[in-house]
Amino acid sequence: MGRWTQYDEDDYRLPEGMKRVGYDADSGRYYFRDREGLMYKGPEGSEFGELTLVSEIPSSIPQEVDEDSDLEAAPTGTDGYRILALDEHGTRYNPRGGAYRTLFPFFLIIAVVLLLVWRLVLLPTRIAPVPCPSTTLSYIVQPGDTCWDIANSHNSSLDKLLIVNPKVDCNKLMPGDRVCVPDEGMSISVRF
User: Fold this and answer.
1) Distance CA 157, CA 147 (A)
2) SS3 of 11, please?
3) What pLDDT, in 10s, does the model give residues 19-65?
4) Ramachandran angles phi, psi of 113, nearest 5°
C-alpha cells in the first residue's frame, strides 16, 4: 500500500455514516446512503463532491445493500436474477437475432471462401474442345500414340493431319488429347 492510500477510501472522504452503494454508468454518478436510509447522488462524472438528496434511484442500484456485498457486481433481484438493461422507454432491450446476428457476416464470408475453394480446386474446369470439321473424325490420343501412328492407322498422311490440326505439337502429344483425323476419301488442299 502506498503512503497516502487511506485518503482515497470512502471512510476518509465521506461524512460519517455515509456509504457508497452503487454507480449508474448511464449518468456517470455514484449513489450513497446515510444511516437513516436516505439516498444521495454525487456529481456527474466524479467520484466525490457535493451530494444531492434524491427521491428515486435508477433500477440498477439495489434498494438494500449488505455490508459484504460487492458494489462492482451487477445487482440482483430477490429471485437471484440480474436486472437487464432497459431502453429509454423502460422496456428491456432484446436484440433481434441474438448473438448469431453479429456472427452472420463472418459465416457468410467463410461460406463464400469455401465455395471458391471448391470451384477452383475440387471442380476442374475444362474448356470445351473446338469441334472437328465435317470432313474429319475425332480421335482421342491413347498412351504411346504419335502423330505418324494416328495418321497411318486412319490411312492418311502426317501432312494432312497437321493441316487439319495446326495447333497440335506432335512432340507434346498427351493421352486424352483430341485430334481431328482426315477421313479416308477426303481431299485437302492447302492455300499458301
Assistant:
1) 9
2) helix
3) 888 888 888 888 888 888 888 888 888 777 888 888 877 776 766 65
4) -65, -45
| Cell representation of residue 181 | 483425323
How would you classify residue 127: left for phi > 0, otherwise alpha for psi between -120 and 50, otherwise beta?
beta
HEC string for 81-116: CECCCECCCCCECCCCCCHHHHHHHHHHHHHHHHHH
**Cβ–Cβ < 8 Å for 62, 53:** no
**Residue 40 dihedral angles phi and psi, to the nearest 5°:** -130, 150
Q: What is the DSSP letter of 152?
A: H
For 120-125, the CB contacts below 8 A with 24+ separation are none
Task: Please list the ranges in the chain whose pLDDT falls under 50.
Answer: 187-192
Q: Contact, 38 vs 27, CB < 8 A?
A: no
Q: Of all helices (H) and strands (E), which one includes residue 12?
A: helix 10-13
Rounded Cα distance between 160 and 174, Å, is: 20
